[in-house]
Every structure is written in structure tokens, then in C-alpha cells.
Amino acid sequence: MHSQTRKETSCLVLSFSKQISHYCSYLYGYTMAHKRFNKWEMPHIEHGKPTKWNWLVLYPDGLTLGSHTDIGAYTLLVAKHGIEIEDEVQIGSHCAIYSYSTIDGKAGKVVLKKNCRVGTHSSVMPGVTIGENSIVGAHSFVIKDVPPNTTVVGVPAKPIKKLNNL
Ligand SMILES: CC(C)(COP(=O)(O)OP(=O)(O)OC[C@H]1O[C@@H](n2cnc3c(N)ncnc32)[C@H](O)[C@@H]1OP(=O)(O)O)[C@@H](O)C(=O)NCCC(=O)NCCS
Prior knowledge:
Layout: H1 3-36, E1 56-58, E2 63-65, E3 70-71, E4 76-78, E5 83-85, E6 90-91, E7 96-98, E8 100-101, E9 106-107, E10 110-112, E11 117-118, E12 123-124, E13 129-130, E14 135-136, E15 141-142, E16 150-153, E17 158-162
Parallel strand pairs: 1-4, 2-5, 3-6, 4-7, 5-10, 6-11, 7-12, 10-13, 11-14, 12-15, 14-16
Antiparallel strand pairs: 8-9, 16-17
Bound molecules: coenzyme A.
Residues 92, 119-120, 135, 137-139, 151, 153-154, 160 line the site of coenzyme A.
């Protein structure tokens, strides 16, 4: 085969397999979220009061919550400057999502894209977007955007792997 044609073919195969793996990770999250909840319902949220599941929101007017989301007990969402949580997002217990951080005066909307997951005891700082299907490891401190389909861990959180197959 001509080397140019070979290059083009392998590019096509690579792009096709990327699309398949992206679809697989989407399907995995969708299936798991829908398995966990036979009957997902939008929680009742009041400023500074624990929800039925014992997570807490400050400034709930700034929060957009997608369906089949799962937020663990003792997680705090400070939505003063906006928090957008898309469908099928999972947040572990004891996390903190800050759109406003009084210690260093940082402020900015936080976006958790569809089907991303945040491990227990992690903090997400103002202005950060966590990409679709990405995973934040337990006990991480996220100060920068996380690209889609990426696992990040640590303080501060750094990428350790791409989610090629789940
Ligand atoms: C991040 C995570 C998804 C990675 O899982 P994984 O893909 O199976 O990765 P591995 O366990 O093979 O770990 C890969 C590397 O990352 C490190 N690592 C894994 N999780 C880490 C974390 N949370 N913080 C720091 N480093 C971590 C491992 O030590 C390993 O390092 P090495 O290659 O130097 O040995 C998982 O460890 C995690 O933190 N899950 C969150 C679970 C959770 O919070 N559950 C409760 C809420 S439902």
C-alpha cells in the first residue's frame, strides 16, 4: 500500500476507535446512573439546609442540576457565582465545589460536564470545568480545567490517564 494511503487509513481507524471509546464511556455512565436510580427525582434545595440526602447548597439560585445526578452526603456546593452540573454526574461524599472561595477571593462559574465523576473528599475551585466522562480521584484539589475523558488525581490535580475503554 502507498505510504500516504496507509497513513490516511490508520488515521481513519484511530479516529473511529476514539469515537467508539467515547461512546462506550458515555454508555457506561448513562447505564450506571440509570441503574442506580429507578426513579430519580429533582431534590428539594434550600439555601444552607441539608437536602434529604444530606448535601448542602449555598446560593441555590446559582445552581443548575441535571437529571440522574448523584451527590454524596456532606458535600457542599457554593453556587454564588454559578455551578452547572450536567446529567449523570456523580459526586462522592465530603466534596466541596466552590464557585466562590473566600480565603483567596477567587470567583467563577464551575461546570461539571455530563457523566463526569468526582471522588470523595475532593475540592473543585472557582472557574473550573470538568470535561465529559472525566474522573477526579479521591482527595484531589482541582484548580485547572479537566479535559474530557481524562482521569486526574492529586493536589493539585494532574492528568494520569485517558479513558479509552471502560
Ligand atoms: C482515580 C481513580 C478513579 C483511579 O483508579 P484506576 O483507574 O483504577 O487507577 P489505579 O488504581 O490503577 O491508579 C493509577 C495510579 O494513580 C494513583 N492514584 C489512584 N488514585 C489516586 C488518588 N485518588 N490520588 C492520588 N493518586 C492516585 C495510583 O497510586 C497509581 O499510581 P502508580 O501508577 O504510581 O502506582 C481511583 O483511584 C479513585 O480515586 N476513585 C474514586 C473513588 C471514590 O471516591 N469513591 C467514593 C465515591 S462513590
